[in-house]
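seq:
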Amino acid sequence: MPEYVQPDAVLVARSVAPDEALLAEYIAEMSRTSRFSNYGPLHEALRDVLQRSLLADRVCLFSSATAALVTALRALDVSGEVITTPFTFAATPHAITWAGAQPVFADIDRAALTLDPARVEAAITPRTTAIVAVHIYGMACDVAALEDIAARHRLHLVFDAAHAFGTCINGTPVHRWGDASVYSTHASKLFHTGEGGVLVCRDDVIAQRAERLQNFGLDTDGVPAEAGVNSKMSEIQAALGLSVLPNVAAERAARRLLAQAYLQSLSSIAGLKAFVLPAHVEHSLQYFAVRVSGAATRDGPTRRDATLNLLASHNIHARRYFYPLCSEFPHYRTLPSAQRGNLPNALSAAEEMLCLPFHGGVSVAAQSAIAKLLGLLDKLT
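struct:
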């Protein structure tokens, strides 16, 4: 194997740094006014900015995207069974469980990696009350087909849009479909608030209930109208978000250039295919994923895992995302819908998808080293 100069650690993700001077101003203002939570001025400022930038009628800010998803499901009164994808982060089925329902796993489309509408419809039973679909790597679900299914079967439709902040379909934001969409503003995301989430609801009544539920169930007079929790976004989270915003455009530009470089350098590698979005879907630039196909290596690991290990040996940290499938978690694997024979496309994706380092800190030299190492794929079998 050729020798490569080992660069400094190249991480799969890197948080966008805030404007330090701006963040210091916000912290000083919080100290001066002693406003640190409870829908303070920075919370409202960030809400206004995001409402405009996302072209949303109303947004609710949360302490985490998981809390936002649980709250959305509670606000919609889901129960019984909720159909979702196994090819997602743990937060998706966990939110369904915490909302008091049971996840039912349906297989994904092999190419798009999002829920297969036909498999969703086949999974519907009299106990089904909702569908929770996930936009993967910025790839939008087949929103029209899922809306049609939800309407015909009188089901709620919620989108986990953690990967899709800024994703549009023919210029229309993805939150224009379904009853509710949840964006993540975790530190791993391009735009972030350290921890946090954004809920966008199409129905203003549902949005108002979600906001009540996130604040102990308190009504406008301060008396609990129902049992709620405390999942509000704090002022320090909002301050971080407002301070990160000025640097987001430059990060987006850097990621576009990196994506172009990856596509050009990886296009001729046999057994590797970049996950490319169709022209009508605007990319969130959150992840750059590739599919590493082929038989397992002689010593056991899949070809994808051998690639992961090769990169790691050169201090380059990619990520198997998502692996293992949520349906294989101990607390879900006994569900009838979690049986491996029901989920061939999801299983294939879990064994083949790999997210490469994708952020403004990936240098030209690092990108070149990654491409050279991936070019050794034919020697990993």
